[in-house]
Design goal:
Order of helices and strands: HHEEHHHEEH
Shape: globular
Largest sheet: 4 strands, antiparallel
Helix content: 40-55%
Number of helices: 6
Strand content: 15-25%
Strand order of the largest sheet: 2-1-4-3
Distance between the termini: 27 Å
Length: 162
């Protein structure tokens, strides 16, 4: 849900999304960092009364999960589908979908992956650590895909500045 002061995000380009990922590389990512980032995401979502679910993983381990009022088990299914895209491509789910659209096709039509298992929709972002690469994911589901993505980017930007 956007408030009147929150303009709807515009679709970023491939180059803009790639730059976001470079800019949001972290020096480290611990269990405590997952709690701080997850709590920040929950706080940002609550400010907007956003009906989202939030999930943070490092490798195969879930370090944080929250389901805010208005979210449903469908959001958890979307989280899993978007997370799998990040794990497979080592890039944000929005970037993966945008790369396919830049080639005048869609992820669903050209990836040859099951759309019940993978979703290249915005909201899943790689947790990338300097010198280690992609070590996990942070995912939001419940808003339109550009807003899910923007919420994650906003939280990571705030988190990195701490």
């Amino acid at each position: 849900m956007s408030t009147p002061t929150d303009p709807a995000p515009t679709a970023p380009t491939v180059a803009e999304l790639e730059e976001q990922e470079r800019r949001l590389t972290l020096p480290r990512f611990t269990h405590e960092d997952a709690w701080v980032l997850g709590s920040l995401l929950v706080d940002l979502a609550r400010e907007r009364d956003a009906p989202v679910a939030v999930d943070i993983r490092r490798g195969g381990q879930q370090l944080f999960h929250a389901a805010l009022p208005g979210s449903t088990q469908d959001n958890d299914a979307w989280i899993d589908r978007k997370r799998r895209v990040v794990e497979r491509y080592a890039a944000s789910s929005l970037l993966v979908g945008t790369r396919f659209r830049a080639k005048n096709t869609t992820f669903e039509a050209s990836s040859r992956l099951d759309s019940d298992t993978y979703a290249a929709h915005g909201g899943a972002f790689p947790i990338t650590v300097e010198g280690a690469g992609v070590i996990g994911t942070v995912v939001v589901s419940g808003l339109p895909q550009l807003e899910d993505h923007a919420l994650v980017v906003r939280a990571l930007t705030h988190f990195k500045a701490l």
